[in-house]
Amino acid sequence: MNLPTTIEGFVQAQNERDSASFSHYFTADATVSDEGHTYSGRAEIREWIQQATEKYQMQTRPINYQQSGASAILTVEVAGTFPGSPAVMQYHLELDNSLISSLRFTG
């Protein structure tokens, strides 16, 4: 599957547990909604992903990608140390040029 460069780098940074690189795929004022919380800006997103990957030891494998305009859905298989692993999840993304401006999860 061919992913846009931003999405490919975002997934790679998450799998390498590189929270600093991960956060640079987001706009300066981006938001992430996860488990009932919203994280705003690169610093909060970096802290959130660092804590989540340390806690759950997550690895993601993209299985589908669809984009229409600035909206995209990345479907991934997520494995880690959480109940129900592995799980299929959808990453709902809003893009601003080549960066992510919004991310929320379903699945």
TrEMBL record:
List each copy of the SnoaL-like domain by range. 8-88
User: What's a Pfam family this protein contains?
Assistant: SnoaL_2
Its protein name is SnoaL-like domain-containing protein
